[in-house]
Prior knowledge:
The structure holds 2 protein chains of 2 kinds.
Chain A: E1 8-9, E2 14-19, E3 22-27, H1 29-35, E4 38-42, E5 49-50, E6 55-61, E7 65-69, E8 74-79, H2 82-85, H3 89-92, E9 100-104, H4 116-126
Antiparallel strand pairs in A: 1-2, 2-3, 3-9, 4-6, 5-8, 6-7, 8-9
Chain B: E1 5-6, H1 10-13, E2 19-23, E3 26-31, H2 35-44, E4 47-50, E5 55-60, H3 64-71, E6 84-90, E7 96-106, E8 109-114, H4 119-128, E9 135-138, E10 144-149, H5 153-158, E11 173-179, E12 182-187, E13 196-201, H6 206-216, E14 223-225, H7 227-236, H8 271-280, E15 284-291, E16 302-305, E17 308-319, E18 324-332, E19 341-346, E20 349-356
Parallel strand pairs in B: 1-3, 4-14
Antiparallel strand pairs in B: 2-3, 4-10, 5-8, 5-9, 6-7, 7-8, 10-13, 11-12, 12-13, 15-18, 15-20, 16-17, 16-19, 17-18, 19-20
Helix pairs in contact in B: 2-7
Amino acid sequence: MKTLKDLYYSKDHEWVKVEGDKAYIGITDFAQNALGDIVYVELPEVEDEFELGDAFGVVESVKAASDINMPIDGKIIEVNDDLEDEPELVNTEPYENWIVSIEILDDTQIDELLSAEEYEKFCEEEA
Amino acid sequence: MDNLKKTALFEVYDDFGAKVVDYSGWALPVEFEGIIPEHESVRKDAGIFDVSHMGEIEVKGEKSEDFIQYIATNDISKLKDNQVMYSFMCYPDGGIVDDLLIYKFSSKHFLLVVNASNTEKDYQWLVENNIYDVDIDNTSSQYAQFAVQGPKAQKILQRMTDYDLSSIKFFFSKKDIYIDGVNVLISRTGYTGEDGFEIYLSPNDAPKLWKSILSQGKVDGIKPIGLGARDTLRFEASLPLYGNEISKEITPLEAGFGFFVKLGKENFIGKDKLVKEKAEGSNRKLIGFEMLDRGIPRHGYPVIYKDEEIGVVTTGYYSPTLKKNIGLALIKSNTVNMDGEIQIAIRKKTKRAKVISKKFYTKNYKK
C-alpha cells in the first residue's frame, strides 16, 4: 500500500491535497486496490456544494458501486473529465488522478484528517 | 471468515492471491488477479474455478426416472446413460425452486447438481415430493468440484489423462476418469459460454489436483478464476443466476427459458400453471439492453418507459468482452419492443438505454 507524505487522508479512504484555499481530492491506493478494476467514475457538477461526509461521486468496479465522500466541506471547482473515458487511471495512478478539486469552505476540518502515517496505521487496524 | 463454510481449497486460496468474501455463507474467492483479466483469460485461454460449494443430491431406486420426470420441467425420457440435462424445478404456481444439472448414470441412479444456497431447500423439496419412494441423499460434502473452462480447457486436461477427452460430447459425462492420477467424474458442461469441463472429485484430492492443473496448464495461460468473473462470464452468455433472472417469483417462461420446459410431458410440478401461461402469454419478459448514456446498470435498479416503472434490472455489468455497459431486465410484456428506448434509474438520475438481443456473446461450445 502506497501513501504520499504531503497528503491528508480520510477514514473513508479519500486523499486531500491542499493548495492554499483549494484542495484536490482522490481515492487512496488502499481503496483502489480493495475495489478492484474500476470501470466507471460518476462525477459531480462544477459549482455543486457538499458538506463533510456527503457522497459527491461514485466509483464503480466491475462488481459494485461505491460512494466517494467529501473529506471536508467544499464547493466543486473542477472535475477530472479524463476519468470519464479512462476510469482505470484511478487504479494505475490513484495519487496522480484526482477526482475533483474544491474550494475549501472550512479549513479547520483539515486538522481532523489523518497524516500518511496515521492513515497507514488505520488501514492496518481495519484489515 | 471463521463462521463461514469452507471448501477443501480454502487453505490454498492464499497461495494464489485470492480475495475471499462471504458468498451465501461460504468463504469463497471473489477474484485472484482481477475480474477483467480473469474474464479475458477464460474467453481467450482457460480458467479454473473452485465450485465445490455447489450442491450434489443423489437419487437412486427403481422409480428414479419417474421421480425426476415429475420434479423437473425438462424431459429426461430421451436422456442416455451418462448424458447431462439442464432443467428447472418449479413450484405448482410456476415459480422456480432452482435450476439444476441432471446427470443420468442409469434409469435407477441420477445426480442432481444444484445451487449452493438452495441445496438444503432443494433437498427438502425433493423429499416432500417423493411420491415414487426413491432414495434421496444430500451428498454435497462428499464432492469437491472444479470447472475448467475456455478454448484451451481440453488441451490442458488432455495432457493429464490417458482418456480421450474429445470423445466426451457436449452435455455428456464420464465416471472413473483419472486426471493426474486422481479419480474424477467429468462432464463437458459449464457456466461461462465457453467449451470446458466440470470435474467432481473427493475433497481430499482437491488441493493437489487444483495445483497440478494450474501448474501443468500454465504454458497455455490457465489462471484461477473467482466468483466475480464467473458472474460476468455467465451474464455475457445470458445464462441465468438464481435470485437474479430466475427465482421463486419468476417462471421459466417469463425468464425466456421455455426451451427447458417441455409442456408435452405427461405430468410435472407446475405444469398446469405453465401450460396456462403459455396459452395466455406471460405478463413479464426478460430483455437485454445496452446503455446509451454513461452509467452502469445494477441488479435491482428500476426500468422506466414513458415515465412508468415497467420492471427491474436483474443483472448489469460493464461487459469485459463487449466493452459496453449492458444489462438484463425483467419487464412488463407489451410495453417496449426490440430496439426501443428505455431508461434505467441509476441512483438519483435516469439514464437512457436501448433494448438489444440478450445474446450478448455467441457461445463457443464444441458440440
